Amino acid sequence: MPESPARTIPTCHPAETVRHYLDQGWWEPETLPQALRRQVENAPDSPATTDPANLAELTGAVPRTLTWREFDQVIDDLATVLFARGIRQGDTVAVLLPNSVALSAVYFALWRLGAVATPMPASYRRHELSGIVTATDATAIITTGRLSDRELAREALAVADGRRTVFAFGPEIPDDAVALDHPVDEVREQLRKYESELEVTVNDRATICWTSGTEAAPKGVPRCHGDWLAMGRGVQDGLRLTPDAVVLNPFPMVNMAGFAGSFLPWLLAGGHLVQHHPLDLPVFFGQIARHRVTHTSMPPALLTMLLRNDALRASTDLTSLRRVGSGGAPLPPGVVRGWQEEFGIEVLNNFGSNEGVCLLGAPADIPDPTMRAQHLPRYGAPGVRWSTRLAESTAVKLVDTVTGDIVTEPGGRGELRLRGPAVFGGYLPGTATTEPFDDDGYLCSGDVFELCGEDGRYLRFVDRVKEIIIRGGMNIAPAEIEGLLIDVPAVADVAVVGYPDAVLGEKCCAFVVPAPGTTVELEDLVAHLRGLDVASFKLPERLEIVEALPRNPVGKILRRELRAALVTEV
Question: Where is the AMP-dependent synthetase/ligase domain (predicted)?
Fold first, then answer.
């Protein structure tokens, strides 16, 4: 088999940055495949990973549980197929798969070859897939024959247009796709030689993930082995994962939520990773009980619903759970307190982004569950030592969005900016018009926080800079109001957006999903907020009842769709 021409090996950070991170011990020289090898050697016959219980319904594949040794063998088999078809170091491969053993194995097979994975939510279709394949110049697409009623492999073949190889899992694979379920044994010796000569550094690009695109077209976020593992170690510290942990992952393993919330902490700590997605509550709860899950993630709305629904909770065995990560929306303090005091389950307040923001409100740092629901650690706060290694290496500042001054006094608000070993090196060329760094190299997050605590040791999320509603010159943070309204018993889910007003510029509209069997009136919401002494200018002046809020594949509210609906109606 002839070798293809030499490829450029993409990296993520300048050489001097890499040396600094390694010298400081903020990065370790270990790569993602080496981290896997360590776990295989440490616990070869322990359970490593399990498929979603409903995988057969989703893709036709039989669910399986693999030990670390078996998982490593599956990765090796996949690598033979990819290698035989010419995938090599520096190649970028698009991945369109649901959470599964296969998805995890694909990542490691690509990394073993020195290739780059560009994952995307399985809900993406031809439009998104074609854009990502073009932007990354992907040499191949890896998918499955079908997903529920969709024929993913055929969609991928239409995008590939005969110029790229389409690899697929499952029993329903078109003839033009390459089956991944059949290893190519005749290339194993050649593959071993290739791997033995391969040089991979922690700065080599491992993934190109994509921003959520809630307000604009998604941007490519390249990340290397070093910054992924630094992120993973920080979350592992907060979750206190040990080799006996059983981690249930309900978020698509395509970006920060899935990678940093479950996949990487599991890889670093060992234990058992149980996959799940899309969210199916009976399946999800069944997996918790069957596998004695110790750690998982839940969106705030699900935490709230479980706490309030005695019948649903009574049908679910949660006795194995120790910690639950949550984020992406305001956490109601009463819910976090309820989970801890009534069930002994600690809820961690997570705040992150694909670009490398990672703030983790861990019980070891913020023991009071009510405070933890609303506050995050301010890394670098004078005289404070946090429990995660990432805190020691991450510099944080708040910058006033009007004056540009650094916020130093408690109660002050500003844009969160940070710099450190988990922050990415810059967007994929051609997918962003500007880079999000200030003159000092800090990542400009676009998120407004308030400095809290007597000594300014905490941060409280206010809202996205772009989502602030300006009513008559006064700023309103939708997330603040949403966090208060979610405590109304009749409110199952809520989003607050601004709509045009000829006099005041903008006013607030609350989109509400009512709890089953209830009704919601605007007067009820206003009365609740007035009872909390909320300023009058923040009160919603319009209510829209909806069956569900529009969200992107990772659960973020698509506010642009809500605003568009309001503008259309006006």
Answer: 36-428
3-class SS at 486?
A: coil
Check if 31-200 and 468-569 are the same fold: no
Return the domain boundaries, the chain: 31-200, 234-466, 468-569
* Token output for 570: 């006006």
> What is the C-alpha to C-alpha distance for residues 40 and 51, in angstroms, rounded to an integer?
19
Record: fold of 234-466: Rossmann fold (3.40.50)
Runs of H (alpha helix) within 48-121: 55-59, 68-84, 101-112
Give dist(CA 34, CA 40) in Å, integer: 10
Average pLDDT, the chain: 91
pLDDT in tens, 232-254: 999 999 999 999 999 999 988 99
- Number of Cβ within 10 Å of residue 64's Cβ equals 15
Element (H, E) at 475: strand 474-476
- Residues in the chain, overall count: 570
Q: 279 with 292: CB under 8 angstroms?
A: no
C-alpha–C-alpha distance, residues 396 and 410, integer Å: 15
Give the helix ranges, DSSP H, for 486-531: 522-531
d(CA 351, CA 340): 20
Which residues have C-beta within 8 Å of that of residue 338, sequence separation ≥ 6?
Answer: 307
List pLDDT tens digits, range 423-455.
999 999 999 888 899 999 999 998 889 999 888
> How far, in Å, CA of 460 to CA of 444, rounded?
17
Q: Which CATH architecture has domain 31-200?
A: 3-Layer(aba) Sandwich (3.40)
How far is 115 from 83, CA to CA, in rounded Å?
10
Q: What is the pTM of this model?
A: 0.85
Neighbours of 53 (CB within 10 A): 19
Task: Report residue 24: phi and psi, to 5°.
Answer: -80, -10
380-427 pLDDT per residue, tens: 888 899 999 899 999 999 999 889 999 999 999 999 999 999 999 999
Q: 468-569 has which fold?
A: GMP Synthetase; Chain A, domain 3 (3.30.300)
What are the tokens at 297? 């993630």
Please, how many CA atoms are within 13 Å of residue 335, restricted to the half-sphere of its CB? 29
Q: Which residues, in sequence order, are CB contacts of 147 under 8 Å at separation 6+?
A: 58, 59, 98, 122
Residue 478 CA to chain centroid, in angstroms? 22
